[in-house]
């Protein structure tokens, strides 16, 4: 079961059965057509942050910030720990295999938390990898156009 929080005020629980019975068709990369209760809904994923499990989703021209919590996230939260609380991240690794589409930073550049670092294309989706903390870029281990494996080192902080 997944817990979904929309705009930090609306909470939903979604089961795997709910996902499997969803009548959705991908019409373009990150764009979907959904039928629900005989109503047509256009959905576009406009931004993703895998580190914080946050997505910006445009539904019929309204944009919503959506947080998705899986079973592990729910257990961590139940133990009283904040999800993503560790800010001492020194290495950014690929969350999944993919293609580096764009690198937005340079070695020596100072970045703030949530600044975009790079774009990783995976499963036909562009995923923006944002900085988990403030810091200075020590090294960039990949180049634009390069294919990376899951857990490959992408960027190091000083």
> Cα-atom Rg, whole angstroms?
17 Å
Mean pLDDT: 85
> What oligomeric state do the depicted chains represent?
single chain
Count the domains.
2
**Biggest sheet descriptor:** 7 strands, antiparallel
Q: Which of globular, elongated, flat, extended, rod-shaped describes the shape?
A: globular
* Coarse structural class: mainly beta
Taking the alpha carbons of the first and last residues, their distance comes to 38 Å
Helicity, in percent? under 10%
Instruction: Give the total of beta strands.
Output: 15
Estimate the strand proportion. Answer: over 45%
Word description of this protein:
The protein is mainly beta. It folds into two domains: 2-78, no CATH class; 91-157, RNA polymerase II/Efflux pump adaptor protein, barrel-sandwich hybrid domain (OB fold (Dihydrolipoamide Acetyltransferase, E2P), Beta Barrel). The protein contains two helices and 15 strands. The chain has helices at residues 16-20, 71-78; strands spanning 2-6, 10-14, 23-28, 31-36, 39-49, 54-59, 62-69, 91-93, 98-103, 110-111, 116-122, 125-130, 135-140, 147-148, 153-157. The strands form three sheets. The protein has a seven-stranded antiparallel beta sheet. β5 and β6 form a beta hairpin. The longest helix has 8 residues, at 71-78. It starts with a strand and ends with a strand. Mean pLDDT is 85; it is low at 83-87.
Short description:
The protein is mostly beta strands and 158 residues long. The protein folds into two domains: 2-78, no CATH class; 91-157, OB fold (Dihydrolipoamide Acetyltransferase, E2P).
